[in-house]
Amino acid sequence: MKEEDISIREEEQLYELAELFKLFADNSRIRILCSLFSKELCVEELAEKLEMSQSAVSHQLRVLKSGRLVKGRREGKYIYYSLADDHVVSIIAQGRDHVEEEHG
Length: 104
Fold this sequence. Notes:
The chain is α+β, with helices and mostly antiparallel strands.
């Protein structure tokens, strides 16, 4: 393996990391992620809780799902969304801790 191969791989990883953090840079998406922090919710529940249209919530959930930050579970005609895994839970928790520390 050449040294150049390593740097190309590292460069790809840095690009993916930057793309991941871009997903957190939108207020609507952060509000959705924080709402899903403690329990799963369907689009209708999220829309009501966040005072957003269902179509806006659905759009943001598609973005979050494509970024592997949320997952869906079908129950009847509803899909209930939750944070994708413990990594996402940890990122949200640490981000909240960081903000609270700055303001506390």
